[in-house]
Amino acid sequence: MVNSFSLAGRVALVTGASRGIGRAVALGLAAAGARTVLTARSGKDLASLAAEIAGRGGEALVLEADIAAEGAAGRVVADAAAWAGRLDVVVNNAGAIAAAGPFLELTREDWRDTLGLNFHATAEVCRAAGPVMLAQGSGSVVNMASVAGTNGVPMISHYAVSKAAMISLTRTLATEWAAGGVRVNALAPGWVTTDLTGPFAAVEGLADSLVHSVPARRWGAVEDVTGPALFLASDASRFVTGHVLVVDGGLSAYEGGPGLLDLVPAGRIGLA
Could you list the active site residues? Predict the structure, then answer.
């Protein structure tokens, strides 16, 4: 029997849903039949997304909130569960990089702001959603990590650490909640074209260098993350928990520098 990708009759909460990966994932979950709860700091962008979902025959609730603010996660989860009477999917997508620079130049505030949104807010959403899902005996949490959380990444040490912490949280909650019917997994995108990565692409020569380090020879589009998110959210992955699904065009599978990829079309190299 093939497990279903359908989310008909289910309720999905997406944080950071107003743009980028969060927006694309919300549209994908809605297209699969989920009633969506959309939260972010930009109410205007959320309203536009909700209207697009409604125009496609879906249903969405907009909850404007700074998910990193004290008490916000609990209120958002409570409002989502009250609206629909249940909560089946949570996609913890909200995230940011407060600044980029060498480790010794990043400030305490840079670390506080980045970990506050990327990790602590995710943990608080899980803290609020866990009891709801465990009480109903089912649920899927998808945490948006990054390949930066599995590798050493210069210039964004605080971001990398926040994503590594998210991966550890994912695996820990997966083991704690599995017997209660709740799955917890993470997605780890590589270089995806978003507002978050825009400043890196704007650095002269850097975008081309980064593309040449990706075997797929391109950056990802936000839509490239939608299918993997749907897989983890749906019953198609019903026996998958504690997993980190990498979506990076082969970046993390490749150990060499860009120059080696350039040699592939030339074929075998004589070294003797």
Answer: 159
